[in-house]
Design brief:
The protein is mainly alpha-helical. The chain has nine helices and no strands. Helix 5 runs antiparallel to helix 9, helix 6 crosses helix 7 and helix 8 runs antiparallel to helix 9.
Length: about 240
């Protein structure tokens, strides 16, 4: 998955500059492995990478900038699918995310950054920026689906993508369990069903089905729940 992030070290030049960048990001990853975010400093990265600390400050300004670029670099391995079908796109993306977080180092990285964000305003800003950019980018899948008529016109793309990612972060950060393909399949299926039903619409839904009893039932005007959304019932698990 690519990104629109434009931090000082974000460009991907060739030659010596590219080697410098790769050496620095590798050093950041290794330092995070060994000491976590709390122990990460520009000086340690400089020593491990062999790059002068002044160069690090000039290009990345702060340790949070380095971590943000590392996250960006690693997440570029998660492709943004475009199969022509939102349920298939959701399933493909969820599987890629599951594979990404299937690696212990990747889980440890996000754990370290989230932990730091809870204590450090700068780390929190970096994390918000990182996820905000990814939600916007991945939201392209939802916008294409709306254009194809798969979803209601007022569907919020970022809300859909947030819902797809939420089970993974709950599993990693709260339940403290590994992610797997079953989680990917269930997340994609649930989000597709909810999106089709209008759960992520931007219109005020406070007056929608307030009098519907908890087990379901038809709406007061006789219209079945979910009416008005596309009738194609294709799910990530098949047609």
């Amino acid at each position: 998955m690519t990104t629109a992030h434009q931090s000082p070290g974000e460009t991907r030049p060739g030659g010596r500059t590219a080697r410098t960048r790769q050496a620095v990001l590798a050093a950041v990853f290794q330092e995070l492995d060994e000491g976590g975010f709390a122990g990460l400093t520009m000086e340690k990265v400089a020593q491990r990478s062999g790059i002068h600390v002044a160069t690090l400050y000039r290009r990345w300004r702060c340790i949070e900038g380095l971590v943000c670029e590392l996250l960006t670099e690693l997440s570029s391995d998660v492709p943004l699918p475009d199969t022509g079908s939102l349920p298939e796109d959701l399933r493909a993306l969820a599987r890629s995310v599951a594979a990404f977080f299937g690696e212990v180092r990747m889980r440890a990285l996000i754990e370290a950054v989230v932990s730091a964000a809870a204590r450090d305003p700068q780390a929190a800003a970096v994390l918000r920026s990182f996820f905000g950019e990814r939600l916007t980018l991945a939201g392209q899948m939802v916008r294409r689906a709306v254009d194809r008529g798969e979803l209601p016109a007022d569907t919020d793309p970022e809300e859909v993508m947030s819902a797809l990612g939420a089970p993974f972060y709950y599993r990693i950060l709260i339940a403290r369990r590994p992610v797997d393909r079953r989680l990917a399949e269930s997340a994609a299926t649930a989000v597709w069903a909810a999106a089709r039903a209008g759960a992520y619409g931007t219109k005020d839904g406070c007056d929608v089905a307030d009098d519907t009893p908890p087990g379901g039932g038809d709406a007061a005007d006789g219209t079945a729940p979910g009416a008005g959304v596309p009738s194609n019932d294709t799910s990530p698990g098949g047609s």
